[in-house]
Amino acid sequence: MDLKLRKTGLWIILCLVLTAATLSYAHGNRGSRNHYGTGYGQAAGREEKGGEASGQIAAWLFGLANFPVALSILLKAGGKAMPQGLNLKKTIDLANSRQKRHLMRLHYWLNPVAAAVAIFHFSAAECRSTIMPELGLGLMLLIIILGLMMTFRLSPMPMRKAICKLHTSPISLAAAISILMIGHSMIH
C-alpha cells in the first residue's frame, strides 16, 4: 500500500473519530444550561429563528455536493489496492472517470448553493459564546472560493498549483469540518 493511500485512510479515520467525539460531547451536554445561562437544552431562541432547519439543509447540501469527490477518492483507493493484472482495476478506473464526468457538476454548482444556505444559517442562528462557527464558516467559504477560482480559471498562472493544492488538501477539509463540529457542539 503506498504512502498517499495510507495518509488518506488516516485522515478519514481521524475525521470519523473526531466526529464521533464531538457528537457524543454535544449529546452529553444537552441537559445543561445554555451559553446565555438561562433555560435548558438547546440554545434559547436559536431554533425559533430557523437556525436548526437551515443548518440541516446546509449540511445535507454540502454532503451531496461533495459526494462525487468522496466517491472518486474511494474508487481511486480501491483501484490502487487492486493487483495490476485484474480487469476489475480497469472497470473501477472507468467507473471513476464516468462518475466524474456526470456527477462533478453537483460539486461545482451545489457547493456555492450550500454556502449561501450556510450563510443564511449563520445569520439566523445567533450565538455569541464562541467564535468557532465563524472560523469554520470562513474556512469553508475560503475552500469554496478557491474551488471557484480553479473552475473558472480566475487565479494567475503561477498561483494555480498552490490554489489547487490548498483546495484539494484533506487537511483543510478536515480542519473546516472539525472546527464546525466543535463549534456546534459548544453551542448545543
Question: What are the main properties of this structure?
Answer:
mainly alpha; 2 domains; single chain
Q: Can you describe this structure?
A:
With 188 residues, this protein is an all-alpha fold. It folds into 2 domains: 45-126; 130-188. It is built from 6 helices and no strands. The longest helix has 38 residues, at 87-124. It is globular, with a radius of gyration of 19 Å. The relative contact order is 0.14. The model is unreliable at 27-48 (pLDDT under 50).
Give the overall shape.
globular
Weakly predicted, low-confidence segments: 27-48
Mean pLDDT metric: 78
Helix count from the secondary structure assignment: 6
In terms of DSSP E residues, the strand content is under 5%
Q: How is this fold's topology laid out?
A:
Layout: H1 3-28, H2 51-81, H3 87-124, H4 132-151, H5 160-168, H6 170-187
